[in-house]
Amino acid sequence: MKSLIVFFIFLLSGTGLRAQAVPSEEENIPFLVTFGNKSLITWGDDDFSQTFFFMVPETYKGMVFIRVFDPDVGGMHDELNGVFDTKVQYSVFGGKEAYSHPDSKNSIDPVGNYKSGNLLSSRIFGADPKYDNKWFTFGPFTPTEGEYVKDFKGYVFKLICEGTSGDDGNLYRYFMSTSAGENIPVEGGNAFAYEYSFRMHDNPDEISHIYPFVDEKCIKIQQRNFDWDDDGKIRVSSEVRREQFCLVSGDGVWAESEFAILQGEKGKSLDFQFIKKKPSVPNNNVVINVSNQFGEMMPFFTSPIGGVPKYKYNIGVRKKPQNN
Ligand SMILES: [Ca+2]
Ligand SMILES: [Ca+2]
Ligand SMILES: [Ca+2]
Ligand SMILES: [Ca+2]
After folding, report:
1. How many whole angstroms separate alpha carbon 277 and alpha carbon 258?
2. Which residues contact 317 (CB under 8 A, 6 or more apart)?
3. Which residues are within 5 Å of ligand 1 (an ion), measured at CB?
4. What is the rounded average pLDDT for all residues in the chain?
5. Per-domain residue ranges for the chain?
6. What is the pLDDT of residues 16-56, one digit of tens each?
7. What pLDDT shows up at residue 315?
8. What distance in angstroms lies between residue 71's CA and the mean position of ligand 3's atoms?
9. In a designed cystine with 224, which of 130, 193, 242, 256 is the match (CB 3.0 to 4.6 A)?
């Protein structure tokens, strides 16, 4: 039954067409970040590896492509440390257990068999003017090359980006497309991760967001953020929660805090807002993950399930009885 509910919420979310830009418009995150594995973690990446999942609904019968913007580590967008000498590897996985293997689903650390499933495609990039500030396309893939996941009524692909050498920061974005040459979303598709490593805006007026999905069994959550550099506040809100402030981290360390889930938050997404201070910390890279009371990691969908939650200030406020 729960799987049906999740599926219908996907259909009702209404923002699916914009879903496949990763990060999405709703997230307002400029870039994903993965550093070379010789970097100091004080630059903002805890483990030099980032995993994303892309969901293709079973109703879609065409080909899919997974595109990477600025896949190289050099030139524009990327974060230089000395000289650009970093290599990153992107690997696309599908088939049995690509998603459902326990080292993959709900996992935030690149340990064990996190590269589960069939390797469908892989490529290494260093500094490469040919792909600087441009798109590279993986695919075509037929949806059935992904892993069929009943709860999503769809096929899931996994894309891992890892810094295999060097000490520079790779900044990049993804898009799941029906086209090799341009960004055309797969209708009803979505993307999600259990941990984001990302670059924040330099402009303190720009607020970035993530939207963890709260399932029916969730009663308490724990957020963990890394290398926030004391750059302002992390605030959580929902339809029934005006604001909840999280403990934030300093340079190269984790901070964690917990709060209880409210009844009206189940089956929907929370809005985590990353609000920078003024003046803000420039080039700030941050990592965040969220787990439930069992320690299970919660997915952040780029197209938030149930839509972007907006606080309804009048919920629970009783109207005064009228006298006439
Ligand atoms: Ca670049
Ligand atoms: Ca370097
Ligand atoms: Ca890059
Ligand atoms: Ca940072």
Report:
1. 23
2. none
3. 70, 72, 75-78, 132
4. 92
5. 2-301
6. 445 579 999 999 999 999 999 999 999 999 999 999 999 99
7. 58
8. 5
9. 256
In the block, residue with structure tokens 């050099």: 74
Distance 69 CA to ligand 3 centre (A): 7
- CA dist 99 and 313 (Å) reads 38
Give the ligand at the shortest distance from the Cα of 282: 4
Cα torsion angle, 307, 291, 210, 142, sign: negative
Ligand number, closest to the Cα atom of 165: 2
Prior bond to 57 cis, omega within 30? no
Q: How far is the CA of 70 from the centre of ligand 3 (A)?
A: 4
What residues have their beta carbon closer than 5 A to ion ligand 3?
A: 70, 78, 170-172
Q: Which ligand has the shortest distance to the CA of 38?
A: 2
d(CA 258, CA 292): 9
Distance in Å, CA 84 to ligand 2 centroid: 4
